[in-house]
From TrEMBL:
Name listed for the protein in its UniProt record: Pectate lyase
GO molecular function: metal ion binding; pectate lyase activity
Pathway in which this enzyme or protein is active: Glycan metabolism; pectin degradation; 2-dehydro-3-deoxy-D-gluconate from pectin: step 2/5
Originating organism: Raphanus sativus (Radish)
Keyword Calcium: yes
SUPFAM superfamilies the UniProt entry points to: Pectin lyase-like
Similarity comment: family membership: Belongs to the polysaccharide lyase 1 family.
Length: 489
């Protein structure tokens, strides 16, 4: 059958070659809603801010303090001709950055939460927040009065939902807390979220028809997982067991804006694992946030991906502000970084688990127009240290001098934004002084907890995996079989 010079080795090599050829095309590493040119999105954000601040300067004498602040998100809905409460869905037009175009419950019904209980996570009572968030249809969810919602289990939010806490003081705490998993188009706005604890081992509804047993959760404030088009705006977050906001496993097109973070060790984790290739497409805008008292590290901590950190106020930190590993791109523009008094913690940046600068010399970490206070310094790398980078950004980010103005209303509107001690059991990981606090609460990366994620029982929600699947396996089988047949004959 075969010419004699065809050795079995050649066949094996040929088999491998065709197997690889076959295996490459099905790998699609582009995430849904991933932007092809993240630098252009960042540029658009800075020019939007510039335009908004310029408008404010033109009208400053006449504007009230709630409208015309120069914050492009707030001005978009607070300066609208109609009162915001009669046109709540206007908010959905106001996001900027990678999460812009997040619809939430736009064009859906208004669902009014009237019942603050969470007595039956498997079959929630109509009128509760849990009943609202699991529905399949787009819903704009509002609250009939001030509410303290103590969750029994994670709140699993379905696609096309807005949680709109404007007009009421809405506090969410307990077990969970917010889980945004394998969904799209969710807006979380003006909600207090704190004291979130690990949960699990219980039956929870994820939709009216999908009900199943959940694995253990980490106790994040908001856990964003394999999801796209998510916008978290004007929330106040503190005191959770794990992260305040985690963004992992193929999530992208996300904006985290106008939030008020306090009293927490590991504030924000962006990216699941250094080796998780899909997170290369993770694109997150972090704008106008107030990083306040009692924060230790991870504001954020990034893996892979493109993170635009613009016009935030970092009032202090205990270890570092922005950390990363696995070659993330970090574009820091117009922030105020105010270093702690500890002389060994002045550096804004940290290359996590990386002592060898040969390893990170090419990571693109750049700082432009940032205001460094109290000895803070940013260690740039990659294109960040060369002039190559200046062409990526022809509009100067607005000077950090404007940060006060842009972040003056960060967190939940009105009322206290720092939720320390709201529910009695405050976060114990911070405040012990020294490094004890860090050792005590650090849980490393979420990669330790993968089994929770993949232990999900909801069949239709399989995590995104590269499709190195059957075709490859069957080809290998054929190769092995034919080779051994040949050798035996
Ligand atoms: C890869 O996935 C993205 C997002 O789902 C999609 O837009 C794109 O068309 C896909 N590309 C190919 C070659 O299938
Ligand atoms: C900022 O906006 C103003 C008004 O829109 C414009 O004239 C100016 O050129 C912008 N500045 C930069 C640096 O683009």
């Amino acid at each position: 059958m075969l010419p004699p010079h065809f050795s079995s080795n050649t066949i094996v090599l040929l088999c491998l070659f065709f197997t690889l050829l076959q295996a490459t095309p099905p790998l699609n590493l582009t995430l849904p809603h991933q932007h092809p040119s993240p630098d252009s999105v960042a540029l658009h954000v800075t020019s939007t801010i510039n335009a908004s601040l310029s408008r404010r300067q033109l009208t400053s004498s006449s504007s009230s303090s709630t409208c015309g602040t120069g914050n492009p998100i707030d001005d978009c809905w607070r300066c609208d001709s109609s009162d915001w409460s009669s046109n709540r869905q206007r908010l959905a037009d106001c996001s900027i950055g990678f999460g812009s175009g997040t619809l939430g419950g736009k064009n859906g019904r208004i669902y009014t939460v009237t019942d603050s209980s969470d007595n039956n996570p498997a079959n929630p009572t109509p009128g509760t927040l849990r009943h609202a968030v699991i529905q399949e249809e787009p819903l704009w969810i509002v609250f009939s009065s001030n509410m303290f919602i103590r969750l029994k289990q994670e709140l699993i939010i379905n696609s096309y939902k807005t949680l709109d806490g404007r007009g009421s003081a809405v506090h969410v705490t307990g077990n969970g807390c917010l889980t945004i998993q394998y969904v799209q188009h969710v807006i979380v706005h003006n909600i207090h979220i704190y004291d979130c604890k690990p949960s699990g081992g219980a039956v929870v509804a994820a939709s009216p028809t999908k009900v199943g047993r959940r694995g253990r959760s980490d106790g994040d404030g908001i856990s964003i997982f394999g999801s796209q088009k998510i916008w978290v705006d004007h929330c106040s977050l503190s005191h959770c067991t794990d992260g305040l906001i985690d963004v992992v496993l193929g999530s992208t097109a996300i904006t985290i804006s106008n939030n008020y973070f306090t009293h927490h060790d590991e504030v924000m984790l962006l990216g699941h694992d250094d080796k998780y290739v899909l997170d290369t497409g993770m694109q997150v805008t972090i704008a106008f946030n107030h990083f306040g008292q009692g924060l230790v590290q991870r504001m954020p901590r990034c893996r892979r991906g493109y993170i635009h950190v613009v016009n935030n106020d970092f009032t202090s930190w205990k270890m570092y502000a922005i950390g990363g590993s696995g070659n993330p791109t970090i574009n820091s523009q117009g922030n105020r970084y105010s270093a702690p008094s500890n002389p060994s913690a002045k550096e804004v940046t940290k290359r996590v688990d990386s002592t060898d600068d040969g390893e990170w010399a090419n990571w693109n970490w750049r700082s432009e127009g940032d205001l460094m206070e109290n000895g803070a310094f940013f260690v740039a790398s990659g294109e960040g240290v060369s002039t190559l980078y200046s062409k990526a950004s022809s509009v100067q980010p607005k000077a950090a001098a404007q940060v006060d103005q842009l972040t003056q209303n960060a967190g939940v509107f009105g009322g206290p934004r720092d939720d320390e001690g709201q529910s009695g059991d405050s976060y114990s990981g911070y405040g012990g002084g020294g490094t004890g606090a860090i050792g005590g609460t650090s849980r490393g990366s979420s990669s330790n907890n993968d089994n929770n994620f993949f232990g999900m029982i909801f069949g239709s929600n399989a995590p995104p995996r590269p499709r190195l699947t059957l075709s490859l396996l069957s080809l290998l089988m054929i190769c092995v079989l034919s080779t051994s047949t040949l050798l035996l004959s």
